[in-house]
Amino acid sequence: MESLRTYFRDCRNAESFEDLRVAAVCYHKTTSVKMASYMHFPPVGARDFNGEIRIAEFGYPEEWRQTYLRKKLYQNDPLARRAPSFIRPYFWSEVGQFSNLTDEERSYINMVSQEHLGEGLSVPVFGPAQRNGYCALGFGRGNPVPSDDEVLELQAACQMGHLAYCELLLKDLPKGTNLSSREREILYWIVRGQTNAQIAESTRLSRNTVETYIRRCFQKLNVNDRVSAALRGMALGMVD
């Protein structure tokens, strides 16, 4: 547990993504992990959302690493694709038990089996404003899998690293748009699907006033429609 406490401290003190990467590598050298990757999923509507995911990794065979990134195999990786819906870590060998695997996912599973990477652990991680992620921890071919207690420690380490990454990332992103309390209230009702007339009734404002506030919200959020406003507002943590 001392190595985990050290890692937690290093995460809190990290001032850059490189600091965080070095801390993760140093920590995993004290565990049974031989290779690891981390994927960050920006929420739809966030300022850094572009349909892609952010990936950091170490320890994987170079040829496999390049193939995975060049061919964007994470798009067919059933563990990565389904990570946001996980409620617990999964061993890689459990992937065959997933229901409704696509042909692309089955092809990916066969490809991975030919790489002889050995057993691994897939850990879902969760952050602020739906900034979730996924950690893949490989133990290497022929090596023993971790105990239940070790899995819990690895899960805690992954979650801490993800939160530290989110904190650094959000510092680097452009500052969030400032909405007034009334504009946030209007956005709240937009998220819940109310029409302008319903919002006017809920807020006891005139319909013209509601429409003015909605235009201001669109302008500040840099969107042109209600759905985009709702998604961006939720991604920025302005509404639940």
From TrEMBL:
PROSITE patterns, per database record: HTH_LUXR_2
All residue ranges annotated as the HTH luxR-type domain in the record: 172-237
SMART domains recorded: HTH_LUXR (SM00421)
DNA-binding in keyword set: yes
UniProt xrefs under InterPro entries: Sig_transdc_resp-reg_C-effctor, TF_LuxR_autoind-bd_dom, TF_LuxR_autoind-bd_dom_sf, Tscrpt_reg_LuxR_C, WH-like_DNA-bd_sf
SUPFAM superfamilies: C-terminal effector domain of the bipartite response regulators (SSF46894), Pheromone-binding domain of LuxR-like quorum-sensing transcription factors (SSF75516)
GO terms classed as biological process: regulation of DNA-templated transcription
Coiled coil: none
Domain of life per record: Bacteria
CDD domains per the UniProt record, alphabetical: LuxR_C_like
Keyword terms of this UniProt record: DNA-binding, Transcription, Transcription regulation
Protein name per the record: HTH luxR-type domain-containing protein
